[in-house]
Amino acid sequence: MKTFKYRWKKYNKEFTGTKDFENEDALHAHMESIGAELLEILSEEDKPDSLPPTVNEPVARTEKKDPAPHLPRSQPLNPWLQFYSLKEINIATFFGGPVAGFYLVAKNFYTKYEYDKGRNHFWLGFTASLLLFTALAFLPKNLIKLIPNPVIPAIYTAIIYSYAKKVQGEYLDAHFKNGGRRHSSLTALIIGLVSLTVCAGYFFSIFKMQDFLRERKSREVNEKAIKLSESGKHNEAIVEFNKAIRISPGNIGLYLNRGITYAGKGNYDLAIADFNKAAELEPRAAAAYKFLGDAYLGKNSFSQAVENYSKAIALNPNDSESFGSRAMAYLHENDLDRALLDFTQKIKLNPDNAMSYYYRAIIFNSRGKSEQAIFDSSKALELDPKNAETYGVRGSAYLNKGDYELAVADLSRYIDFQPDNAESYFARGLAYIGKKDPDKAMADLSKTIQMRPDHVQAYFSRGGIYEAKGNHELALADFNKAIGLDPGSSNAYFNRGRVYHNKGDYDLAFADYNKAIELDPKDAESYFARGLAYGEKDRLDQAISDYTKAIKLDPAYADAYNNRADIFNQQGNYAQAIIDSDKAIELNPKNANSYDTRATAYLHKGNYSQAIADCTAAIELNINFPGTYKTRGAAHAYKGEYGPAIADYTRAIELNPDDPQTYKDRATAYFQKADYDKSWADAEKAESLGGKSDPEFIEKLKKASGR
């Protein structure tokens, strides 16, 4: 026995109930009797003009007979029942998937009162759709892209059409041939679209779940790879990153991390390929361009580094790291202006970054802006007091500023941190030279040479100390070594030329000065030194020529004006000497020599008062210069002021007691004051020092003194 529930609603009348039947034939007979009952209660206007015989003439069921022996047993016997045709099943299936098609097949079974089959086919459609869309979700996306969009729906539509035709085709054909009712295609389309919406939601949830699982797996592999990379196991890390990328090929973070690992290995080309891939996947990913800049910086491709850092900054103008990195690229290109701007911007965005102040201090130091360099390096040390290099930078800034005590203190601190850095000893050696402590300077410079035997500047500096100590041979040895290390250095020849000059080896001095000028024809110092040597050799015109070239190269070269004025004095061109002395004093009003030179010119031009004034100014600047006292004494003597003249000559003799000419001049002054004994004493002293007496003056002195 089977229990069937039925519900039939027609012509505003509803028949429902629950009843046990031996089989489906019994159910059909019962339904036919319900149809007959329905006809009896219908009004005349509601009756159809003709009814199928199965309704107007109920068949007695006392004996089991086939009510329609010419039709298959599955043929519905009631043309008032409404079914979905194969066409509607096709429409619903194509648009809504297997579940929609099987839903209509199931509805047909339900309409035919075959509830078990209806339920089974519904769940068959549901399961088929579940499997289909799950399979599609897990197919590789690149494979799905190769399949045209209508192909898959067409395939499963054809399959379900064939199946529906097999299980329901005969009785649907019979039903519709007998005038049976059918659902509209619009209804099927709506059901298909509703099913499509449900399936799309399911499909989307499958994709989201798949993405979630994929991302979780790739995240686990990525984290493992990062730990390997951080521990220095780059090759193993790359293997894991490869796995993660295969799982989630659209994750730009994986390409960035693998690129960072490649860069850590020094394989910048592969790193650049990964960063480019990340930028391709996400063109607005500032990090991709930032890391590209880092990779190009590692390759020393500075212009490309700048280009990519600029893109990163355009996408994220608040990224202080990109500004700092671009500044480093500019530094390598020696573009200090742009580097300074970028470090300043980084400090604005991140004022607690010590390295930004450190590098900006280096730039300020290289430009001679010692105060700014000291400020920035002090700020860097405040933020990071353990950074030894910052002490070195600040020490160099103090050195450039001339604050040698603080320079020595900072450089010594740097050496405590970095005892193997030759440059720190060299810089401290220069600071000791500034402190006028040649012995400590010599020790640091020798230490520099010991650590860096190729340190040319250390040989220069130590050679200078040897020269200052009068040890010409050791000085020459250091300068020869410097020339051997850097034969193209004009400074090496210049310094060696000075040693030869001081030794009195003028030919060798001229040879080195000439070589220095040949190597660097724009070096005013070399022309000045050679001009000095020409002057000492009484080659006055050549001296004036070299001083003039030095002035042309350096119009603010006060000593060159002064020395040229001195040569003009020697040539008797006192007017020109005064012009050059005026310029020298204008450029450097603290140089005693310039006042002394101009005083000599005024003396010879007979302007004794101005000569005395200039000598007084020179003495105020340098009280230990005997020539100035001598010149002022002569000016006083020419004015007949023999007392002040004798006082100046006496001071000159105290400063230089071996100059016979000063004794002769004082002897003349004493003679004018009629102090003949002192005049005789000075004349005899001058003669004892090798000075030649003036016979005419001696005759006058004998006559006046009665000797």
Notes on the structure:
- There is one protein chain.
- With 707 residues, the chain is mainly α.
- The protein is 75% helix and 3% strand.
- The chain has helices at residues 24-41, 53-56, 86-96, 98-111, 115-138, 141-146, 151-177, 185-230, 234-247, 252-265, 268-281, 286-298, 302-315, 320-332, 336-349, 354-366, 370-383, 388-401, 404-417, 422-434, 438-451, 456-468, 472-485, 490-503, 506-519, 524-536, 540-553, 558-570, 574-587, 592-604, 608-621, 626-638, 642-655, 660-672, 676-688, 695-705; strands at residues 2-10, 13-21, 82-83, 181-182.
- The strands form 2 sheets. Strands 1-2 form a two-stranded antiparallel sheet. Strands 3-4 form a two-stranded parallel ribbon.
- It is rod-shaped and about 185 Å long.
- The relative contact order is 0.02.
- Residues 8-15 and 41-77 have low confidence and may be disordered.
